[in-house]
């Protein structure tokens, strides 16, 4: 489960996917499969969440990793490279960006 805290040592990655209502569910299915079958089992994985806007034109993914290198190593695996090629076909674009948590409000 993701842990949002200002003073953590985790690598936070937020990925946004631009999609269409016609391909949103297919993209979600591909992402759920990637997380359940592969990504969640990779070294350094902490947790993730998938979010969909009400128009089904954008998916946001929040994931956390013990280290930046763990996330990058997962991306470089042959399996994830193949999955990302298929994911790319289901959306207009996607961009993973690494972030640091600077503040949390409860």
Automatic annotation (TrEMBL):
Residue span, ABM domain: 11-102
One Gene Ontology molecular-function label: monooxygenase activity
Alphabetic keyword roster: Monooxygenase, Oxidoreductase
Keyword Oxidoreductase recorded: yes
Classification via SUPFAM superfamilies: Dimeric alpha+beta barrel
InterPro entries: ABM_dom, Dimeric_a/b-barrel
Designated name of the protein: Antibiotic biosynthesis monooxygenase
Annotated organism of origin: Jhaorihella thermophila
């Amino acid at each position: 489960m993701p842990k949002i805290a200002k003073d953590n040592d985790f690598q936070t990655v937020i990925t946004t996917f631009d999609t269409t209502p016609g391909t949103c569910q297919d993209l979600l299915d591909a992402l759920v499969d990637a997380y359940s079958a592969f990504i969640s089992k990779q070294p350094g994985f902490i947790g993730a969440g998938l979010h969909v806007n009400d128009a089904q034109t954008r998916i946001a993914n929040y994931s956390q990793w013990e280290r930046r290198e763990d996330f990058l190593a997962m991306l470089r695996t042959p399996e994830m490279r193949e999955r990302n090629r298929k994911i790319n076909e289901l959306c207009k674009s996607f961009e993973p960006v690494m972030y640091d948590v600077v503040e949390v409000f409860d």
